[in-house]
Amino acid sequence: xxxxxxxxxxxxxxxxxxxxxxxxxxxxxxxxxxxxxxxxxxxxxxxxxxxxxxxxxxxxxxxxxxxxxxxxxxxxxxxxxxxxxxxxxxxxxxxxxxxxxxxxxxxxxxxxxxxxxxxxxxxxxxxxxxxxxxxxxxxxxxxxxxxxxxxxxxxxxxxxxxxxxxxxxxxxxxxxxxxxxxxxxxxxxxxxxxxxxxxxxxxxxxxxxxxxxxxxxxxxxxxxxxxxxxxxxxxxxxxxxxxxxxxxxxxxxxxxxxxxxxxxxxxxxxxxxxxxxxxxxxxxxxxxxxxxxxxxxxxxxxxxxxxxxxxxxxxxxxxxxxxxxxxxxxxxxxxxxxxxxxxxxxxxxxxxxxxxxxxxxxxxxxxxxxxxxxxxxxxxxxxxxxxxxxxxxxxxxxxxxxxxxxxxxxxxxxxxxxxxxxxxxxxxxxxxxxxxxxxxxxxxxxxxxxxxxxxxxxxxxxxxxxxxxxxx
Length: 472
Known about the structure:
20% helix; 43% strand; globular; disordered N terminus
C-alpha cells in the first residue's frame, strides 16, 4: 500500500511540476526569440547606418551600438537561464565546496548541484577477518535558492550506502542533512550565516567533494581528530576583510561528551538532530593567501561539551562536569606548476577525562578503555600532475600522490584510572598511503590507492581501493 501511495504521489507531483516548468520555459523561450529578432533588427539597422551615414550622423550610430550591447547582455542571461552551463568552471565560495557554491554564481532563483562517490576495498595482507567490500558510499544533492543579491539559502542532503534498508551483507544506510543555512551577504568583509552549518576546521570538513581531495578515503586525521563531516546548529559571521584574507566565526551547539571514544570524537557529534543545547562552543577560522599559489590558515574551537549531564558510576557517585574541550588545527596548502602539497596538524585537550573514564555508559561502549586527555594528529601529502609531461596541451589530469599520517588519540590519559580501565597503546598509528588520481574533466575523478597502517601494538590490514566520484 505504501509503495502504491508513494508512486501515486510522485506521479501527481510530476503532473503538477511539469506544466509549471514547461510554461515558465516556454515563456522564457518566447522572450528569447523576440529578443533575438530585435537584435537582428538592430544589427541590420547598424549595418545600414554605417554604410549610409557613418560620417554625417555618428551619434545615431553610437546610440544603436549602445542598444545592441544591452540586447546582447540580456540574451546572454536568458540563454544561461534556459541552458545550464555545465562547462562553466566550478569555484569554491565562502568556505564551501565548488559544487556547493553554485548558488552564489547565479542571478536569482533555484540552483541544483551534487556529488557522488563509490569505491571497492580489498584487504591485501594481515586480513584479520576483514572482508572485501564494494560500496556506493554516498550520493549528495545541493539545493540552493538565491532570493536576491543579498539573501541566499543553501543546503546539502546526503544519501549514504545506497539504501536505508538493511541488507543481507551489511547494515542500514542513512539520509542526513549535512548543512542547511541562510546567508545574508551584507558586505565583503562581514556577512551573516545561520542554520545547520559545517564546522570550519581542516581541509575536508567543508570541502569534501571527491574530485578535490586525493584517495578514496578521507585523511584519517580529519576523521578521528577533526570528526568530519561535522555540522552543528549555530550562527556567525564570515567574510574577506582584505584581499586574500578570509575568516569564519560561529557560535555552535557543542558536542555531547557521552559520545567521546578512545579513538575519536565522531560519535559525540549531534548533527542537528534534537541537539542538546545546554552548552555552546565558539569556533573560528582564518585563511590567508599571500600569493595565489599558497594558503596558510588555522582554526580553533573552545567550549564545554558536558551538556548538563551526570558522569561517573553509582559506586563513586555521579557528578556534573563541564568537559571543557579545546581543538586547534593549523594547515598549509601550496599549488604550482602541477605540484600540490598539503600539511595539517591537530591538537585536542579534554578536561574531566578522568570522570569520563569512570562513566558507566561510556565504558560500556569503550569496553573499559580510557578517554584520552590529549589527542594529537597530523599529515603531509604531496602530488604532482604528470599528464602535461605525457600529453602536452591536454586538459586531462593524472597525479601520483603520497600521504603520511600520524595519529595518537591517547597521547595523554588521566593519571589515575579506575580498576579495570586501561590505556590502549594501539591508538597510536602511522598510516602510509600512495595512489593515483585521474580526471578526464575537472568534475569527474577516478582513484586508485594503497594503504599501510602500523600500530604500536599489532598491525592493521593493508588495503587497496579502486573508486571514483563526480560533481555537477
